Amino acid sequence: MTTTLVLKSSILGEYSQSNQLIDAALEGKHNIIERDLVANPVPVLDMNVATALRGGDDLSGELQAILNLSNQLIDELNAADHIVIAAPMYNFMVPTQLKNWFDIIARAGVTFTYTETGPVGLINDKKVTIVTTRGGMHKDTERNSIESYLMTMLGFIGITDVTFIYAEALNMGEESAQAAREQALSQLNAAF
């Protein structure tokens, strides 16, 4: 049976369009690991977090807790066959909460390794579906920095089977917003 990891990163809670789309597609589905990165935030990468992620036997309680969280997030990632990421566009980038998740799971020797030819990802055989919502229309423009960022980060840890589902023009009138939501939900339902 397929296990799905859902990463939600919208700051809008119940008003989030990306969360609503994912919730609708997952209704009645089983074996879901849901991680709301806003309700349960991951620490921002700083010197303490970087120190904790290196591990060691002499970590303080605070640093050990950070390392334990990283291990838990990586365990969730490894347990999943399919990863669904809600990636709304905020100021032309993913939410800070989603970037924080990548920062804490990108660990040398754990999710990637360095070789003489460059980094190699250690997380393989995962399917990723990214639901990206936007108030305007940015797909296929230079403003669509989310796609290149997420492809880079996922590829860095070894994940290359990635599908993007766009719900755009959500603030450009109710008719276009409804059409975008319906199309995105149809594509998302087909991903399962």
Describe the structure.
With 192 residues, the protein is α/β, with parallel strands linked by helices. It has a single domain (4-41, 79-190), classed as Flavodoxin domain (Rossmann fold, 3-Layer(aba) Sandwich), CATH 3.40.50. It is built from 6 helices and 7 strands; from the N terminus they run βαβααβαβββαβα. It has helices at 17-26, 47-53, 61-79, 96-105, 145-156, 174-190, and strands at residues 4-8, 32-36, 82-86, 112-115, 118-121, 127-133, 161-167. The strands form 2 sheets. A 5-stranded parallel β-sheet has the order 2-1-3-6-7, sandwiched between helices. A two-stranded antiparallel ribbon has the order 4-5. α1 (17-26) runs parallel beside α6 (174-190). The two termini are 12 Å apart. Homodimer. This is FMN dependent NADH:quinone oxidoreductase. It comes from Vibrio sinensis. InterPro entries: Flavodoxin_fold, Flavoprotein-like_sf, FMN-dep_NADH:Q_OxRdtase_AzoR1, NADH:quinone_OxRdtase_FMN_depd.
CATH class: Alpha Beta
Query: What is the tally of helical segments?
Result: 6
Helix content: 25-40%
Rg result = 17 Å
- What is the approximate shape? globular
CATH homologous superfamily title: Flavodoxin domain
Relative strand content:
15-25%
Query: Main β-sheet: number of strands, strand sense, barrel status?
Result: 5 strands, parallel
Mean pLDDT value: 94
Stretches with pLDDT under 50, minimum 5 residues: none
The CATH architecture assignment turns out to be 3-Layer(aba) Sandwich
CATH topology: Rossmann fold
Helix and strand pattern:
EHEHHEHEEEHEH
End-to-end separation in angstroms reads 12 Å
- What's the total number of strands? 7
Count of all domains: 1
Structural class: alpha/beta
Which strand order does the major sheet show? 2-1-3-6-7
Protein name: FMN dependent NADH:quinone oxidoreductase
EC number: 1.6.5.-, 1.7.1.17
Keywords: Flavoprotein, FMN, NAD, Oxidoreductase
InterPro entries: Flavodoxin_fold, Flavoprotein-like_sf, FMN-dep_NADH:Q_OxRdtase_AzoR1, NADH:quinone_OxRdtase_FMN_depd
